Amino acid sequence: MPSMSYCMFQNTTLEMDQILDTLDEAFEEGRPLKLSSAEKQAYEQLIDQCQRFLVHDEMITGQVMTGQDEEVDLSDSCYE
Fold first, then answer.
1. What is the structure's pLDDT at 14?
2. Which residues contact 22 (CB under 8 A, 6 or more apart)?
3. In terms of pTM, does the model score above 0.85?
């Protein structure tokens, strides 16, 4: 189910924490991560999305640092 726009970052971080915990556990235990072909494809897509996210982060950080942050609203309104 898609997240509502006002709390999509918070919801996504919860899901990403679950993914990272799974990856950490596999690495710490020295076991390979067993993924289906569909999950491998989704993993690769997630890598691409993370790279795109970092590009957006650089743009947002640049706006904030140059005082052009009027259009960037990252307010904490998820639970208000």
1. 94
2. 33
3. no
Q: Which residues of 10-21 are buried (b: 16+ CB within 10 A; e: fewer)?
A: eeeeeeeeeeee
Q: Name the one residue in this structure whose structure tokens are 């189910």.
A: 1
Rounded mean pLDDT for each run of 10 residues along the chain, 80 residues in total: 79 95 95 94 97 92 69 57
Q: Are 33 and 26 in contact, with CB atoms under 8 Å apart?
A: yes
| Helices within 1-80 (DSSP H only) | 8-29, 37-65
What whole-number distance in Å separates Cα of residue 5 and Cα of residue 3?
A: 6
List the one residue out of 17, 8, 1, 14 whose CA is nearest residue 77: 8
Residues 6+ apart with CB under 8 A from 58: none
Element (H, E) at 30: none
